[in-house]
Amino acid sequence: MKILVINCGSSSLKYQLLNMDDETLLAKGLCERIGVDGRLKHERGSEEFVTEAPMPDHSAAIKIMLDALLSKEHGVISNINEIKAIGHRVVHGGEFFSDSVLIDDAVEKAIETCFDMAPLHNPPNLTGIRAAKQNMPGIPQVGVFDTAFHQTMPKKAYLYALPYALYDNHKIRKYGFHGTSHKYVSMKAAEALGRPYDKLKIITCHLGNGASICAIENGRSVDTSMGFTPLEGLVMGTRTGDIDAALVPFLMEKEKLSAQQVIDMFNKKSGLLGLSGVSNDFRDILQAKQDGNAHADEALEIYYYRVANYIGRYAAAMNGVDVIVFTAGLGENSALLREKVCAYLGYLGVKVDPEKNAQRGKCMDFSAAGATVRAMMVPTNEELVIARDTKAVVLG
Ligand code: AMP
């Protein structure tokens, strides 16, 4: 059963075609500069094909993606109908969706209702859904929401201490994101340890350019660090993470900024980039630190400290933890980051084996002998979760 996974941004469209009989990747690609000019990178195994082609909108990008999938030279299918379903990543599902769903008009309407809460993500997600419908009519489409996994959080974790009417009237609350990743790596960790998922206390750390932590108790998300939007929580590549809300009017007055400009600063100019003054990329900051840049050094220390803080908080929330999982760009690739964060966690029973921790690219337990809490690295695979959910929804 072949399933196409689509992840649409405002000017980009990422895709993967998977054979879900054996969960293998057939082809993947990226359409970029949609609405500007248009560029496609298509990969089949180790072969890569790049072309410039006009993409005035997402529908044009989907046509070019289909041409690549069907092409004699680089293609992997001979007929569109070989695609049995399409899974779409949708960032915000509000309180509407606690699971993946078959997309119909009511689902599209609900995704639209969430536009205010994810203005950068939900509109292009819906554009992608409509463009896919237009170009591949009759193929079932499934929405997989970044927020859905966290819908199991209890009220004590998701309500902000604001006047209650704001929750009633505007659904202001913590939603959390990266749900597909937290779900995938936590399940994978349990499987690798050979322990029952529904009897474990797991803390998953998705540390990429965007970053969040999740507390998963007996297979259910019970708390997570991102909030109403992805701005809350950890220090990120360009985002502040947790911050005193009183800074908004203070900065508006002192720096003569509009509210929008302050939020843009919090989202795009802060985090590792703002603190280091160097880059949002961890590798550049490490290099700057080696070159003697004191701000880069501080930025890294603040980053590790905030991650360790949240792990302690979630260990408290679950009255213990069995496994801590690191994933995404930084979590998977930086042994230094894992070592630095784990150095704070000896009190929990975490002990790192430096040789195991130095390995990369595979699911591994890097705990030393005597550790009572497992520390693991698990490569994430959000597309595979989307494809699995899509298959499950379509097969009913
Ligand atoms: P993501 O958003 O998941 O692609 O993660 C991007 C982040 O991962 C960037 O800050 C990168 O610098 C970081 N990253 C990727 N590869 C490495 C590596 N080999 N060592 C350290 N950081 C890395």
Structural overview:
By secondary structure, the protein is an alpha/beta fold. The protein has 15 helices and 14 strands. The chain has helices at residues 58-70, 105-113, 122-135, 155-158, 164-170, 179-193, 247-254, 259-268, 271-276, 282-290, 294-317, 328-333, 335-342, 354-357, 382-395; strands at 2-8, 13-19, 24-32, 39-44, 47-52, 83-90, 101-102, 141-145, 201-207, 211-217, 220-224, 323-327, 364-365, 374-377. The strands form 2 sheets. An 8-stranded mixed β-sheet has the order 5-4-3-2-1-6-8-7, with helices on both faces. Strands 11-10-9-12-14-13 form a 6-stranded mixed β-sheet, sandwiched between helices. Helix 1 (58-70) crosses helix 3. The two termini are 14 Å apart.
SSE inventory with pairings:
Blueprint (H helix, E strand, L loop, with lengths): L1 E7 L4 E7 L4 E9 L6 E6 L2 E6 L5 H13 L12 E8 L10 E2 L2 H9 L8 H14 L5 E5 L9 H4 L5 H7 L8 H15 L7 E7 L3 E7 L2 E5 L22 H8 L4 H10 L2 H6 L5 H9 L3 H24 L5 E5 H6 L1 H8 L11 H4 L6 E2 L8 E4 L4 H14 L1
Parallel strand pairs: 1-6, 6-8, 9-12, 12-14
Antiparallel strand pairs: 1-2, 2-3, 3-4, 4-5, 7-8, 9-10, 10-11, 13-14
This protein binds adenosine monophosphate.
Report a brief summary of the structure.
The chain has helices spanning 58-70, 105-113, 122-135, 155-158, 164-170, 179-193, 247-254, 259-268, 271-276, 282-290, 294-317, 328-333, 335-342, 354-357, 382-395; strands at 2-8, 13-19, 24-32, 39-44, 47-52, 83-90, 101-102, 141-145, 201-207, 211-217, 220-224, 323-327, 364-365, 374-377. With 396 residues, the chain is an alpha/beta fold.
